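Hi R.,

Here's the chain you asked about this morning:
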Amino acid sequence: MSFVSLDSIQSDEQTPARPKRPDWIKVRIPTSENYHELQNLMRVKQLHTVCEEAKCPNIGECWGSGTATFLILGDICTRSCAFCDIKTGRPLPIDWEEPKRVAEAVQRMNLRHVVITSVNRDERKDGGAPIFAMCIEEIRKVQPGCSIEVLIPDFKGDRDALKIVMDARPEILNHNVETVPRLFKQVQPQDKYEWAMATLANAKQLEPDVLTKSGIMVGLGETWDEILSVMQDLVDRGVDILTIGQYLQPNPQQHLPVDRFYHPDEFAELERLGLEMGFQWVESGPLVRSSYHAEQQVRTLSPMHRKTA
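And here is the predicted structure, written out as tokens:
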């Protein structure tokens, strides 16, 4: 399978302040039969995936193996994060039939593990939490034994909204902190670091058997000590799994520039330090994203899955 630099997929435009992408930032061109079959299935079911909406660099690898991250609650987000390529604006009304279509797609693909994420729906007090719970319930009806990870918004730190999701007992509850406190307002202007930490701490308190997970992007101008400080904050809140990946600018006209590219050796060192701090699993690398190797994580770590498998 051939490789291509992300520069040729996203943009050839360079500015003096934008560092050149190094040789290790390469992805496979999506060409497999599974990729095209999955792409067609999403259109038939009128479903969205964050793989497409966020231009994930691993889409060829993951879709080629029949794995995808479903994007629920529409494809329009009420927040305007400076790193994300998902559309921002006024979302359409909630589609209450969406969970059934997601479950039908999971069954059709015969998935053993599924990841479900969403846009932010700040116009609703519950943030759309009931749709997450309904997706979990519908998948378990039609695909017994399929483990489920949900990558949720922060629900503005609302414990009641979070409880709706936790009561459905996914195997993994994921919420990405994304960056360090100093850069939070620049990177995620409508988010708060405190909301992210409250979400993760409350999730572990509500359902201790559910694995909790979070992710950090690097390359936005953070310092090494700031990364380690966020990692310690996550460990202190009982987070089990950490993902660390390189930030890649989706669009030079709309998104924050890359401050610098981290070397693979630096990612390896962050993985070593994370495991030393107490995380059960650290996935750290230039192209690592939230759902990367998610199935291996749940198969290895989840006490809930071991009880039902």
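One quick note: The longest strand covers residues 211-218.

Cheers,
M.
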